[in-house]
Fold:
Amino acid sequence: MESVKNLFGKRVKELRKERSLTQEQLAEIIGIETRNLIKIENGQTFPRVNTLDKLIKAFQITPDEILKTEHLRDIDFLKNKIIDKLNSDEKLVRLIYKMLF
Structure:
């Protein structure tokens, strides 16, 4: 299972890229060194509370949105969750089938 730091780093990177920001640009916006942002994105460190607040403001999101990392989990974990859901929901299976074929 992936660590919270790792998943959080992936989320920060995802949000940064969605906004077409470089690591250097985001680091400047939130007032930290680029190397520290790289460590956050790589899951080596977790940001301080004030840096976390600045990230939330920079991305213009709510605090809960920065913690939404479920979709970034290991692919096998996600596949198993999907299979479990499909096994218990016939309507969902039919809907997905329509979407795909």
User: Anything to note?
Assistant: The chain has two domains: 4-68, 71-101. DSSP finds seven helices and no strands in the chain. Residues 79 and 85 are 10 Å apart (CA to CA). The longest helix spans residues 4-18.
